[in-house]
């Protein structure tokens, strides 16, 4: 049974970014995924648009702005061939949206100017999702088509199935959190769809209104444009469709009728929204991808160590009475970490958060408290207390 310094489960943008930054400190790394290649889940279905978050100053906006600055510099300096640094026009949806934009101007973190029916942000870009994930993990040992059925703590190490040992284990599994046996760790799957089309219409930069529209790229005399993304939160049982978190390689499957119906409805929605942004003629859909983005209950990412709720309750039984315990005094699960909940901004947040998590693990540098998993435990414990009172 081979032992590694670091094992990462999940080869989307989060796991691939983490592999890159950890590899600066160790070459004894293994990246595992149930799919046949990197970026075969939500990351492969992403439009990978990189653009600012608009709004008044708050912690989430600051997080996204810091991440966008970091990740843009990271991509430009290390992988410029995969970055389309063309700028994005943000178009208000209606008068109310225009009024909101005007109210946000005093809080803008990035340069912009008036263009067309909206506002042009030079920093707005796209990154090639598969190519960047591939490049990030170019020198990393990988195992694909591998299903992790169990992770087991053995003293300070972790055993993956009966095959591998890890000194430190990282879970970057997106919407599927079956390996995390902690009830406070809550993720919602938001299914998105991206389509690539060929058109006779040329688009000179990225646009965003009710969907995102990429700058066109000429291919054999036609213009290739990416359009994304939809937001489906399924409340009914979808286990008999391709919208099933336990499936692998979902975009290589022959879809059932129920899935095809949803896909076709979403294609129509995306095309209508795109044509509301720019005139797109002679459209031919040439690629369709679906994937489940992982969104936390408060929209912030979920990064770092996991609280061991059982042992924390044993050590501090008064937590259940609503007593607050300092994060550093809670029991944590040793050498187990997450990088999850990046939602629809994975290619903005991924490299930034991976660097922060690497610095925590290697240099013991503290994470910003708003992205730590401790916050989820504290809220969950408080809710348990309130339920007990009722």
UniProtKB/TrEMBL annotation:
GO cellular component: cytoplasm
Domain FAD dependent oxidoreductase: 5-360
Source taxon at top rank: Bacteria
SUPFAM superfamilies: FAD/NAD(P)-binding domain
Keywords, in A-Z order: Cytoplasm, FAD, Flavoprotein, Membrane, Methyltransferase, Multifunctional enzyme, Oxidoreductase, S-adenosyl-L-methionine, Transferase, Transmembrane, Transmembrane helix, tRNA processing
The UniProt record lists the keyword Methyltransferase: yes
Protein name stated in the entry: FAD-dependent oxidoreductase
